[in-house]
Structure prediction request, 346 residues.
Amino acid sequence: MALDGTPPAMTTPLRPADAPETLPPVSATSAASAAVPARGSRLRISARSAPYVLLLPFLALFLIFGLFPLGFSLYLAFQSWEPTSGLGAMSFVGWDNFRFALSDEWFWKSMWNTLWLAVAGGVPQHLVAIPLACFIHAGFKRWRNIVLGAYFVPYITSTVAVAIVFTLLYSTEYGLINAVLRGLAKWPLIGALMPAQAIDWINDPEHLKPAIAVLVFWRFVGFNIVLYLAGLQAIPRDLYEAATIDGAGPLQQFFHITLPGLKPMILFGVTLSVVGGLQLFEEPFILTPDGRGGSDQAGMTAAVYLYRTAFDFNDFGAASAMSWLLFIAVGALTWAIHRGIGRGLR
Prediction:
């Protein structure tokens, strides 16, 4: 009470509308999470479009580095263009580039060299790889992978390193091959078959193509051994056991069981050899001294001549036309191989 006896004035409590708003304390983490939207709301991909989104990086690389150069080369095949003049200097010439390629003596010579090397370096690969794969499959059980790896090393070795080694082997004065031939010339019977002088393998047009063919054979025979060894492991062992019970010898089993069982792999291996042989570029380009096919263009393959036409003669239109003619040749030979070997698979 007050001193004068009056009761103290009653204070009216504030109504909820007049009361100041008090908010609960907000932490920094919750504030940041409120400012940033949830992860799932940023990018939502449907199940139907997810595979296409995942394939976008591959498709982009394929379009830029695969499909675009292919289409641009086809466009260039009908153009006359020197790259030093810029893209604006292109002029449409129709089929003139193809007519020039078909009438060019060097183009036909390069095609002949390519076919020669494809046959001489490719056919012996399979004639050696098939029996050698059979020998490894039957004779090596525990050490099979080690022996197979030793044969596969030339295939994964750098082409430049291989060409340098073979250049030393083919050296006229200090090469190991001529040294072996000089040693064999001293033998009574074999000496009459050996050359009287050292062979200039790289500079002599008659010996350049065989030298390149040996290099191609040595480099790719291991790859074919791996292919045929995989095919041998797919042939059922019951066939060999039944043939042995019936009295069939090793040669009969080879011709009646092994070869028919390897026909799909033979078709695959021969196709790869044909395609690779017709595109041969690295071996003759590095092995020849000038990188242009050697003396008398004996080692100038179609791929090497395409390179020379484009970058030495600055005629990208003719080079593109030649590349498409080579593509047609590869397709025709592949079709012929599938018709010949693939017919026996049906």
Q: What stands out?
A: The beta strands are 79-80, 91-92.
